[in-house]
Specification:
This protein has 217 residues and is of the alpha/beta class. It folds into two domains: 103 residues, Tetrapyrrole methylase, N-terminal domain (Cobalt-precorrin-4 Transmethylase, domain 1); 106 residues, Methyltransferase, Cobalt-precorrin-4 Transmethylase, Domain 2 (2-Layer Sandwich), CATH 3.30.950. It is built from seven helices and ten strands. A five-stranded parallel sheet has the order 3-2-4-1-5, with helices on both faces. A five-stranded mixed sheet has the order 6-7-10-8-9, with helices on both faces.
């Protein structure tokens, strides 16, 4: 069967940032594939549906089994992604997994946009980097990050295990960036516990932040 599959961005975490299009895609779905964190702003919309819950130890296997179930049954499926599926959402892998299905991508508000708004920058003057995953390309990304900064672009960095805010600050300073360079760290943006820290790189290098953070330099 050729199932209908919506890859749905549900915003950075706050329910107010979930778009009407995302809400409608979730309401019309029969099966939902998601990490538990991603369901936070839309949990009431998926109540009673068949949910394939992904965890660090089995997320690839769950995604594959859910895709096979969608093709076997023809069930309308929503794959939920926090933020926007086109921003560090594994979109390439999902499109490959659901090749042959009737797929649409429902964009959402990303934490990248939320961080840019807080920092007061335009994204066309920035380069977005993601270190959410341990990736063999991370070394190349670090080189590109330096090149973009040297060319006068803002850096918008989704931090992760291999590049936390303090690591980013230290990396930039070790490669010639002025320690007094201003930065903005947004943690858990749009959520009630949102924290925004305006600091220098030198200050950022000495502080700890939530792993759900975005840095703008």
């Amino acid at each position: 069967m050729r199932p209908k599959v919506a890859i749905v961005g549900v915003g950075p975490g706050g329910p107010a940032q979930v778009t009407p299009a995302a809400r409608e895609a979730l309401r019309s779905s029969e099966m939902v594939v998601s990490w538990d964190l991603n369901l936070g702003p839309v949990r009431e919309l998926v109540a009673g549906k068949q949910i394939w819950l992904q965890r660090p130890a089995d997320y690839r296997d769950v995604a594959a089994r859910a895709a096979r179930a969608a093709f076997a049954t023809g069930a309308a499926t929503a794959v939920v992604r926090i933020g926007d599926p086109t921003v560090s959402g594994g979109l390439d892998n999902l499109l490959e997994l659901y090749a042959g299905a009737e797929v649409r991508v429902v964009p959402g508000i990303s934490s990248v946009q939320a961080a840019a708004a807080v920092a007061g920058i335009e994204l066309h003057r920035a380069v977005v980097f993601s270190f959410h995953d341990e990736d063999r390309r991370n070394a190349e990304e670090r080189d590109f990050l330096l090149e973009a900064h040297r060319r006068g672009r803002h850096l918008v960095v989704l931090v992760g295990p291999s590049m936390r805010p303090a690591d980013l600050a230290q990396f930039l300073m070790e490669n010639g960036t002025d320690p007094a360079t201003p930065a903005v760290v947004g943690s858990r943006l749009t959520l009630p516990e949102e924290r925004v820290d305006r600091c220098t790189l030198a200050e950022m290098a000495l502080r700890e932040y939530d792993w759900l953070s975005v840095v703008v330099v």
